[in-house]
């Protein structure tokens, strides 16, 4: 495989708060082209140090990508540092100036003098037009290696790489076909999942398997490369098929869709509607359901009943039931779902109650979460879970578990 | 100021998903000691490339910190690469082996053979004990510069740096006192804020001013360093006082507290209670309010009324009013707040209705959000905003604007 180094330029990227996210996006793109990233650097707006870093990276790698430092102001030093590193001059380009002047005219603004700095190319470089900003990129062939200067703003960089650089790189690199599979999994912890499937994927370097875990939501990425599509697909199947068999219906999505979108699609397909009654999740479940555009097709709304008094006052849950069983009980969850369904007239109702912490109010251990469910057929149901995390981790998992409960009921 | 380079070691940090967060934490710590970070690198588990990177960084900086690659397995190459870069051998240390054996005995586990790799130090290095893991750190003085090898797991690295390295560094560095101010601001956009305050902070390199923006929530960090506390405080005041004057009561917090905590504190102090009625925010407002531990002291719950039918059915909002004014109207927002307050018996009620997009349902432009408010005194109120962002950006800002509306009413 060919290899690359990525240099992010800008003193703001050397603070405690700022992350260089461009290199993550570029790594994904490069991997998909069969290029491995060997090293990443972040360098401040320091011409001498940047020039030295460029020289070092060109010694190490086939491809060096610089991001940022192509702006109009004096602290943007990528052009000058590259010129110094390669020992090549900067050349004024009338066509770049014309394009800039035309851009400013179109926006009805006057071009500032310092934008002229953006009309210079490294001698021998090819200009990469930027239709989203003033900084043109540059593609520089040097002694069998490639050096790219790309703008820092992610939307400009991504459009330029996707629209221009990827095709040019593909022409230079040995052909590798990349195929990807993605599974999303709910209802189990990351370490349990990894213990289950690691014997399957660990023996393989190709495909590369990556596991990303959020609160109760796990993504498994498989990425295989081969000389032909058949080879890549066969490698994917060698790892993917046994994983699918092991996980069964815990896999809720194969196209990247999240759980609120998947369950929303099931409700829409069945012509059904949904309401919620939330206690410990406090609105997070409703918030997730309504994050999907068009969710008003199947989602009606619901009740935030944070106190026992509100469970009785807004939902009519029997105060005696709450005293006997506490609000963190399957009885309470069933009563909440039943009443929310009756009061909204929805087909299905989900309820969430539990102890998110830091202290227990009901006596149930912190992390206890109960999901209730009511529908047109059968008795209301409830299930008790012991979820992991701090207060907001438990709350986020409670919403995820509720959506997964619904998914399994609708299946 | 002294300067540093940070090298994160590990091939897993060169994937599209993994971020080197240790360098962010270390940057914060180093800045607080008056040390500037000049460059950051991420290098895979490649001994030769790592050795070369260490040599280069030692040429550039006073202080070089390596994180990771100190584990027991063959792919952990930080010790060998450092040995190669410095031209110093690795020395077996019986005391490190004794400590490891004692650790395993305490945990009632057998030490694996490859843990012996962790008992070797660079010749001349000082060992940094690790009470949270098996990887001892190393402090290496070399020709007036300092090289530190620290473990990769954040909890081990942080305990080692805070407990051992910071004090040793302080003894080596010129004394710098660091003082910090933090403002959190609501109710204005980032570019408006920056336009307002940049003439104040731009002329100063010390304090360093950093502006972090979330959805409608802006943090302004000022960090000043000086030889004495008085000098640092005077520098902070020179920038902070005019900023406070310009922003006035848009500053809602000076101690880092978020808006749900600040408004919660105001409600608790006044012995008041709150309920919500959410349409386009769909639960996000309730979710934020209940993210604060102890919010049940002042928060009752509320209504998720996503459709017009639910606004009438759950809250009794007049269907004729919704037909005449649409649900995205100040009339609807006021009726929602008034009814939610009556039905829950709370002191105050907040309502949110609007058009989050992608398409408008009511005819109001996407981004239109209306906050309603009802309390014990005076008529219900409402205010209309035009918020920025995609669907979930508008929804997140709607919750933020509602909390800020409440804050200004309670003030």
Query: Main beta sheet of chain A, described?
Result: 6 strands, mixed
Strand order of the largest sheet of chain A: 2-1-3-8-7-6
What share of the residues of chain A lie within helices? 25-40%
Distance between the termini of chain A: 44 Å
Let me know the average pLDDT of chain A: 93
C-alpha Rg of chain A (nearest Å): 28 Å
Structural class of chain A: alpha/beta
Provide the CATH top-level class of the largest domain in chain A: Alpha Beta
Q: Please give the most extensive interface between any two protein chains, plus how many residues each contributes.
A: A-B, 67 and 69 residues
CATH architecture of the largest domain in chain A: 3-Layer(aba) Sandwich
Q: Oligomeric state of the chains?
A: homodimer
- Summed up, the domain count of chain A is 3
The CATH topology of the largest domain in chain A comes to Molybdenum Cofactor Biosythetic Enzyme, Chain A
Low-confidence runs of chain A (pLDDT<50, min 5 residues)?
A: none
Strand content of chain A: 25-35%
What is the tally of beta strands of chain A? 17
CATH H-level superfamily title of the largest domain in chain A: MoaB/Mog-like domain
Total count of helical runs of at least 4 residues of chain A: 13
The 3D shape of chain A can be described as: elongated
């Amino acid at each position: 495989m060919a290899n690359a180094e990525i240099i992010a330029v800008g003193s703001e990227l050397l603070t405690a708060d700022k992350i260089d996210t461009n290199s993550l996006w570029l790594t994904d793109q490069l991997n998909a082209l069969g290029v491995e990233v060997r090293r990443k650097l972040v360098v401040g707006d320091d011409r001498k140090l940047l020039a030295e870093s460029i020289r070092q990276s060109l010694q190490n790698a086939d491809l060096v990508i610089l991001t940022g430092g192509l702006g109009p102001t004096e602290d943007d030093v990528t052009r000058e540092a590259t010129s110094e590193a390669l020992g090549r001059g900067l050349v004024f380009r009338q066509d770049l100036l014309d394009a800039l002047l035309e851009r400013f005219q179109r926006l009805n603004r006057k071009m500032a003098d310092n934008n002229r700095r953006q009309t210079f190319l490294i001698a021998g470089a090819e200009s990469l037009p930027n239709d989203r900003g003033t900084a043109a990129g540059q593609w520089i062939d040097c002694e069998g290696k490639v050096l790219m200067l790309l703008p820092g703003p992610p939307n400009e960089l991504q459009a330029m790489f996707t629209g221009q650089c990827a095709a040019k790189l593909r022409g230079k690199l040995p052909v590798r076909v990349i195929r990807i599979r993605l599974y999303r999994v709910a209802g189990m912890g990351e370490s349990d999942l990894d213990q289950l499937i690691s014997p399957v994927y660990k023996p393989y370097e190709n495909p590369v398997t990556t596991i990303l875990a959020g609160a109760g939501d796990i993504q498994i990425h498989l990425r295989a490369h081969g000389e032909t599509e058949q080879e890549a697909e066969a490698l994917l199947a060698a790892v993917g098929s046994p994983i699918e068999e092991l996980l069964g219906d815990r896999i809720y999505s194969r196209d990247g869709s999240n759980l609120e979108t998947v369950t929303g699609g099931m409700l829409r397909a069945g012509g059904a509607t949904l309401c919620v009654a939330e206690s410990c999740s406090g609105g997070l479940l409703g918030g997730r359901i309504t994050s999907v555009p068009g969710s008003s097709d199947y989602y009606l709304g619901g009740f935030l009943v944070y106190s026992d008094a509100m469970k009785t006052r807004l939902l009519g849950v029997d105060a005696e039931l709450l005293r006997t069983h506490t609000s963190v009980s399957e009885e309470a969850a069933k009563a909440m779902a039943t009443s929310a369904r009756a009061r909204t007239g929805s087909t299905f109702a989900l309820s969430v109650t539990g102890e998110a912490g830091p202290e227990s109010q009901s006596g149930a251990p912190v992390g206890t979460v109960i999901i209730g469910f009511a529908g047109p057929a059968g008795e209301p149901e409830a299930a008790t879970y012991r979820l992991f995390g701090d207060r907001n981790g438990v709350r986020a998992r409670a919403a995820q578990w509720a959506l997964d409960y619904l998914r399994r009921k609708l299946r």
